Amino acid sequence: MKQIKSIYNKLLNNYMPQGWWPINNIYKKRTSLTNNEKFEIIIGAILTQNTSWTNVEKALNNLRNNNCLSIKSILETKQSTLAQYIKSAGYFNQKAERLHIIANFLLQNSIDELQNMQIDELRQLLLSVKGIGPETADSIILYAFQKPIFVIDAYTKRIMSRTGLCRKDVTYDELQTIITNNIEKDTELFNEYHALLVEHAKRYCNNKPLCKDCIISSFCKKLI
Ligand code: SF4
User: Fold this and answer.
1) Are 98 and 70 in contact (CB under 8 A)?
2) What ipTM does this complex have?
3) Which listed site, 60, 74, 198, 210, has its alpha carbon 20 to 30 Å from 39?
């Protein structure tokens, strides 16, 4: 399926590198990350569940402005207060509980220890944490720990199924395998491809797809 790489090239040439994952609202390519930056990405990956990134940015800014963006400060803050700080991200009571859970988890499993794990071991461990499913776990592994695993989300499924590269009811694991079997296993490529798919879904391949002007129209079966 050469198409998968061709779609990537087309998206990259048109949209340019996306600079994911944004840290402190700044999008740029980062070859290495501090533990504080990794922590912010982990928190962002949890907050972004079922909401847009704009809402997450507000929540992260609130946490930052209240000196509440560290393991210690999150654990020292009551869940009800955390919920107020992250209100913009939606499901704020549930997410406040999850921030406490992940902070406790990181107290027992340091970021350095997690960084040194193999992908499979790290993924299993993250999936054992309440509130962390495959998409969140893979986002953390790819963007915080900079290890090569492909993140699947609703946008990825939508674009790949419309182009005809997978079934509409494809599972998370199936689509992850289809994509990773057809491109190089490379952290930078996986980072960029996922970000580009999100951008493309927002610009063209949304609920009312703009197929006439779409930049990957020639690769697409338009199975809408
Ligand atoms: S041609 Fe249409 S369906 Fe296909 S990727 Fe573009 S916008 Fe989506």
Assistant:
1) no
2) 0.99
3) 198
